[in-house]
Write a structure and sequence with these properties.
The structure holds three protein chains of three kinds. Chain A is mostly helical. In chain A, about 75% of the residues lie in helices and about 0% in strands. The longest helix of chain A is centred in the first third of the chain and has 32 residues, at about 65-95. In chain C, helix 3 packs parallel to helix 8 (about 155-185). Classes of the chains: A mainly alpha, B alpha+beta, C mainly alpha.
C-alpha cells in the first residue's frame, strides 16, 4: 500500500468528507438547535447559540407522551423482529439452498410486496385487519412491518448464505444429519453475522414506519414515536422548532445507540463473507 | 467394513457425459485410488458413491445392498473433503461427535468414541479448540477423525491432502496408510497426484475423460501401462515417446526414427505393424562412450541425487536420468543405449499397448 | 423407495419453509388488491358506509380527471428523478468508499444513519433546514451574500419537487450505497490484481470486473428501488402534504388525500389500481428484459437427498 499522500487520495478524502458532511451535519445541527430556546431559533439567525437551555427536553420528556411513544415503538419493533427473523431465515434457506419447482417464481413473487402502492393498501388493509381485530393493535403494525421487511430481507440474507461453502451441507448429508438439524445447528450459526444484519434491518424498518402506524393505531396511547411526534409538531399552526428539534433528537437517539453497539455488524452481515 | 461394487456408472451433465461406464469392484479392506487429470470424472464418481450426485445410469452396491436410491446419510459411508468442511462454530470435540449425536447415540458412547479417535490421531489437546485455532494439518486430522468416529462401511476421500504443504503431505500420507491398514478400512480415494496414488493404493483406477482406462496394481500399471495416456501419466519423470518405423536393416528388423535406431528384440518378433509409438522411461537409458544413439544435450535439470538430461535427437527431444556425479553440459554430444526388452509399444491409431505375451 | 421420493422430500421441506412468508405476502398484498378492486367498483365513500356497485365509472372519471393525469405525470418525473439519480449516485459513492482510506470503517458504519432514523425525524430536520425565515440554509446563504431573498424550498411550487427529491435521496442513497458496497466487496481481490499487472486502467477494470459482478445487485435494486421510489408517501406528506398547491402531489399522495380527506375511498382505490397496473407492466417488462439476472437461485445446486 502506497502510503504517500497523492493528489487523488486528497481529492477522494475531500469528496468523501463533503458527502459525510451533507449526510451527518444536519444531525449535529438539530442537536445544537434542540438546546436553544424556541424564540431564539425563530428570531435569531445566528449560527452560534446565544442561550443554551434544556427547556425543549423538559417539554419532550416530562410534558409530552414521549416515553409512551418510545415504549410503543419498541414493542412494535420487537414484534417485528421476532416475526421477521424466522420468516426471513426460512425463506432464504428455502429459496437458495433447496430445490423445488417454481422456486424462482416464488422468490420473485415475494418481491411483489413492493409493487403495490402503500396508499392503495391502506384502505383494504384497514378493512381486513378490522375483521381480524388487528386494528388499533401493535401486532397489526408489526405484521405490516414484517411484510415489508421480509422479501428484501430474504434477498439480503441469500447473498450471505451463498457464501457458505456447499461442503458444509454435503458433509452433514453424508453423515446422515437431517435437513432441519443441519439448518438449525450448522447453517444458522454459520450465518450469524447475516442474521444479525437482517434483524437490524427489520428493526429499522419497523422503527421508521409511518403510514400504517398512522392508519392502524387509532388510540393515542398506542401511538408510536413518528406518529406521536409529528402529531404535535406539525399539528399546530406555528411549529415550535425547539420542541421539534428535541423530538427529532429523541427519536434518532435509539437508532444512534443501536448503531453504536452493533453498527459494524450491519455492513459485515450483508457482505457475503468478504469482510471476514 | 464392506466391499463397494460400482457397475456401469454413468453421469450426464446436460449434454456432456462426465462419467462413462465406470465399473470397479472394491474389496472389503481394499484401498482403491481413482487417479487422473482434472476433469477426468474421478470426483464425480466419488460423489455418486456418496450420494451427492445422482446416477444417470448404473448401480452402486455397498456390501450386498444396492444403494442407488438411498440418501447420502443412509449409505453408512464417511467422507473426507478436500477443504475439510469442519463446522467452524463448534469445538473439535463437538465436530467429532456431532454426527453421532444426530444419530441418537448415548452421551457416554459418544464420549468414548471421540476419545478413542482423538488418541488415535493425536488430537487430545485440541478437543476444546475451534477449527480456526488449528493448523492445516491438525484440521485435516479432525476431518479424518470425524469420518473414523462414525465407523462407516467405507471411507470416501476427495483429495484430502491437496491443501497441505509438501512436507506435511508426505508425513500425512504415511500416517493415513498406517491408519487405514490398522483399521482394515475400505477406502475409495481420489487424487490427481500420481505419486500419491502409486504409494497409497492397493489398486489404482486410472481415469481419463470419464472412463476408467486401466484398473490394476501400481506395479502392473507402472510396468505394463495399457495405453500411452496411462504410460505418460504414471511415473515421474514421465515416459518418453517416439514414433518409429520398423524397417529391415542387415536382415534384422529395427525401430528407426532419424538417428534413433534400436533392434527389435526376439520377444517382439510377432510384431506386425510397420510403425509404432515407442515408450521408454528416462531411467531405462544408459550413457555409453561408444556406439548407441547420439544426441545433443539441450537442458540439464538437477534433481538432487540424479540429473534429468534433455537430449535432442534431430527435432525430437527425449529425457534421461543420470547420476549427479556424471558431468554433462548443455550443448555437448552424448551417446546412450536402451535395452530393447524394456521398450513399451503403442499402436499408432488408438495408442493402446501392443503386447506380446499371454497376459493382456 | 424410488428416486422420486427423495427429491419430493427435499422439495416438500423447501416449500414448507417458504410457506409462511408466502402466506403473509398473500394476506398483505393479494387480499387487499382484491378488496381494493372490489371497492373501486363501488361508490363507497367512507369505510363502513353504504354504497352501490357502479362498475367502471370511477375509472372513467379518473381518466377524464386532469388532476389525476397530472399526478401521473408528476409520479413519472418523481420516479425518474429519484430512481435513476439515487442509483447512480449510490454506485459512485460505493466505488469511492470501496478503496481503503483513513476512516473507512467510520464511514461504512455511520453513512447509513439518514436511512436508519425515522422518516419523521428526516421531515422535521429538513423542514427546519429549508425554512424560509429561520432555516440554516437560507440564513447562511444570505449571510454570505450568495442570495438576496430566501429560497422558498418548500413553498415555491417550482422547486418544491426538487427539494423533496434531494431529501428523499439524502435518505435512500446511503442505504443503496451500503448494498452496493456489500456487492463490491464480494468481488475477489485477485481479479483486480491480475488486471493491474496486465496493465488495465481503472475504467477497464470497472468495465470487465466490477460491472459484471455488480449486475445482479444493480438489476434487483433497479427494480425494487424504482418500486420503492414510486410509492414514497411519508416524506412528501409530512413535508408538503402534496403542496404547495399540487406541485408535489404524486399518485400515492393524491390517493391518500382522496381517500381520507376527500372522503372517497372507492375513487382512491380505482386510482391506486390504475397505478398498480402501470407498475406491474413496468415490472414484468423489466424482469423479462433482465431475466438472466433474476435467476437468483443457483440452478445447479446439487440435490442432497438423492
Amino acid at each position: 500500500m502506497n502510503s504517500s499522500i497523492s493528489l487523488t487520495s486528497i481529492l477522494r478524502l475531500l469528496v468523501i468528507s463533503l458527502i459525510m458532511f451533507i449526510l451527518l451535519a444536519p444531525f449535529l445541527w438539530i442537536l445544537l438547535a434542540s438546546f436553544r430556546p424556541n424564540m431564539e431559533l425563530i428570531r435569531n439567525q445566528t449560527l452560534i447559540p446565544q442561550n443554551l437551555t434544556i427547556e425543549n427536553y423538559i417539554s419532550l420528556f416530562a410534558k409530552s407522551a414521549y416515553w409512551q411513544w418510545v415504549i410503543n415503538s419498541t414493542i412494535v419493533a420487537i414484534y417485528t423482529v421476532v416475526l421477521s427473523l424466522p420468516l426471513i431465515v426460512a425463506g432464504a434457506y428455502s429459496v437458495y439452498r433447496t430445490q423445488y419447482r417454481g422456486r424462482n417464481v416464488l422468490s420473485l413473487f415475494l418481491l411483489s410486496v413492493y409493487i403495490f402502492p402503500t396508499a392503495l393498501l391502506v384502505v383494504p388493509i384497514f378493512k381486513i385487519f378490522d375483521g381480524l381485530a388487528l386494528v388499533d393493535s401493535h401486532l397489526g403494525c408489526a405484521l405490516m412491518n414484517t411484510a415489508f421487511a421480509v422479501p428484501f430481507g430474504i434477498w439480503l440474507l441469500q447473498a450471505f448464505l451463498k457464501s457458505l461453502p456447499p461442503e458444509l451441507e454435503e458433509a452433514a448429508a453424508v453423515d446422515g444429519i437431517g435437513r432441519i438439524r443441519t439448518l438449525f445447528q450448522i447453517i444458522i450459526p454459520q450465518a450469524a453475522p447475516g442474521i444479525i444484519a437482517i434483524a437490524m434491518f427489520a428493526f429499522i424498518v419497523s422503527w421508521t414506519e409511518y403510514l400504517f402506524a398512522m392508519t392502524l393505531l387509532l388510540s393515542n396511547d398506542l401511538h408510536t414515536l413518528p406518529i406521536g411526534l409529528t402529531g404535535i409538531v406539525f399539528g399546530q399552526y406555528r411549529v415550535n422548532w425547539g420542541f421539534a428539534a428535541a423530538g427529532a433528537v429523541g427519536s434518532a437517539l435509539p437508532v444512534f445507540i443501536l448503531f453504536l453497539i452493533v453498527g459494524r455488524w450491519f455492513i459485515r452481515g450483508i457482505s457475503a463473507g468478504a469482510i471476514k | 467394513m464392506a466391499s463397494v461394487t460400482l457397475t456401469r456408472l454413468n453421469k450426464k451433465f446436460g449434454n456432456t457425459l462426465a462419467v462413462k461406464n465406470v465399473s470397479v469392484d472394491i474389496a472389503d479392506g481394499e484401498f482403491l485410488v481413482f487417479v487422473g487429470p482434472s476433469g477426468c470424472g474421478k470426483t464425480t464418481t466419488l460423489r455418486m458413491v456418496a450420494g451427492l450426485e445422482s446416477l444417470s445410469d448404473g448401480e452402486i452396491r455397498i456390501g450386498d445392498r444396492i444403494v442407488n436410491d438411498l440418501a447420502p446419510g443412509d449409505r453408512d459411508l464417511a467422507m473426507v473433503f478436500q477443504n475439510y468442511a469442519l463446522y467452524s462454530h463448534m469445538t473439535v470435540e463437538k465436530n467429532l461427535g456431532f454426527a453421532l449425536k444426530a444419530r441418537g447415540l448415548e452421551g457416554d458412547e459418544i464420549e468414548k468414541r471421540v476419545q478413542k479417535v482423538a488418541n488415535m490421531l493425536d488430537l487430545q489437546e485440541m478437543l476444546g479448540r475451534k477449527p480456526r485455532q488449528l493448523s492445516g494439518g491438525q484440521r485435516q486430522r479432525v476431518a479424518l477423525g470425524r469420518a473414523i468416529v462414525r465407523n462407516p462401511q467405507a471411507f470416501l476421500m476427495d483429495e484430502p491432502l491437496s491443501n497441505l504443504d509438501a512436507l506435511l503431505r508426505l508425513q500425512t500420507r504415511k500416517e493415513l496408510i498406517e491408519l487405514t491398514g490398522e483399521l482394515k478400512s475400505t477406502v475409495i480415494y481420489v487424487t490427481h497426484d500420481q505419486v500419491e496414488a502409486m504409494t497409497m493404493g492397493h489398486r489404482l483406477a486410472v481415469m481419463n475423460k470419464g472412463e476408467v482406462v486401466q484398473l490394476d496394481t501400481p506395479e502392473n500399471i507402472f510396468s505394463r501401462p495399457s495405453s500411452r495416456f496411462v504410460a505418460e501419466f504414471i511415473g515421474s519423470p514421465p515416459m518418453n515417446f517416439l514414433q518409429v518405423e520398423i524397417v529391415e536393416k542387415n536382415k534384422k528388423r529395427v525401430f528407426q526414427q532419424d538417428s534413433f535406431e534400436v533392434q527389435v528384440p526376439d520377444s517382439m518378433k510377432a510384431l506386425k505393424e510397420t510403425s509404432v509409438i515407442l515408450g521408454f522411461r528416462p531411467n531405462e537409458l544408459e550413457l555409453v562412450s561408444r556406439g548407441g544413439i547420439s544426441g545433443t544435450v539441450s537442458v540439464v535439470e538437477t534433481l538432487g541425487s540424479e540429473k534429468l538430461v534433455y537430449l535432442k535427437l534431430g527435432e525430437k527431444t527425449i529425457s534421461l536420468l543420470v547420476p549427479t556425479a556424471e558431468k554433462i553440459n548443455s550443448g555437448e554430444n552424448v551417446r546412450f543405449k536402451i535395452n530393447p526388452e524394456s521398450l513399451h509399444l503403442f499402436n499408432i491409431a488408438n495408442e493402446t499397448r501392443i503386447s506380446f505375451d499371454d497376459s493382456v | 423407495m424410488s428416486q422420486q421420493d427423495f427429491r419430493s422430500r427435499d422439495s416438500r421441506l423447501g416449500l414448507y419453509l417458504v410457506l409462511p412468508a408466502v402466506m403473509l405476502v398473500i394476506l398483505v398484498v393479494i387480499l387487499p388488491i382484491i378488496s381494493g378492486i372490489q371497492i373501486s367498483l363501488t361508490s363507497q365513500r367512507v369505510v363502513g358506509s353504504e354504497y352501490e356497485i357502479i362498475g367502471l365509472k370511477n375509472y372513467f372519471d379518473l381518466f377524464k380527471d386532469k388532476n389525476f393525469i397530472a399526478s401521473l405525470g408528476r409520479s413519472a418525473v418523481w420516479v425518474l428523478a429519484n430512481g435513476l439519480f439515487q442509483t447512480f449516485v449510490a454506485l459512485l459513492i460505493a466505488l469511492l468508499i470501496n478503496q481503503p482510506f483513513k476512516g473507512q470503517n467510520f464511514v461504512r458504519t455511520w453513512i447509513i444513519l439518514p436511512w436508519a432514523v425515522p422518516a419523521a425525524v428526516t421531515a422535521i430536520l429538513w423542514r427546519w433546514m429549508f425554512d424560509a425565515t429561520s432555516g440554516i440554509i437560507n440564513t447562511s446563504m444570505m449571510r454570505l451574500g450568495i442570495m438576496e431573498k430566501p429560497a422558498l424550498f418548500l413553498a415555491n411550487p417550482e422547486i418544491a419537487g426538487i427539494s423533496l427529491t434531494f431529501v428523499n435521496s439524502w435518505r435512500y442513497v446511503p442505504f443503496l450505497t451500503i448494498i452496493f458496497l456489500a456487492s463490491l466487496a464480494s468481488v475477489p481481490e485477485e481479479e483486480y490484481e491480475a488486471a493491474r499487472v496486465d496493465g488495465a486502467g481503472a475504467w477497464l477494470q470497472f468495465k470487465t470486473i466490477t460491472f459484471p459482478n455488480l449486475l445482479p445487485t444493480l438489476t434487483v435494486l433497479g427494480l425494487v428501488g424504482t418500486l420503492w421510489a414510486s410509492n414514497v408517501f411519508d416524506i412528501i406528506w409530512m413535508m408538503t402534504r402534496g403542496g404547495p398547491g399540487v406541485s408535489t402531489t404524486t399518485i400515492p399522495v393524491l390517493m391518500y388525500d382522496t381517500a381520507f380527506y376527500g372522503y372517497n375511498i372507492s375513487k382512491a382505490s380505482a386510482g391506486a389500481i390504475i397505478f398498480l397496473l402501470i407498475l406491474i407492466v413496468f415490472a414484468l417488462v423489466f424482469i423479462f428484459l433482465n431475466r438472466k439476472q433474476f435467476i437468483m437461485a443457483d440452478e445447479t445446486f446439487r440435490d442432497l437427498s438423492k
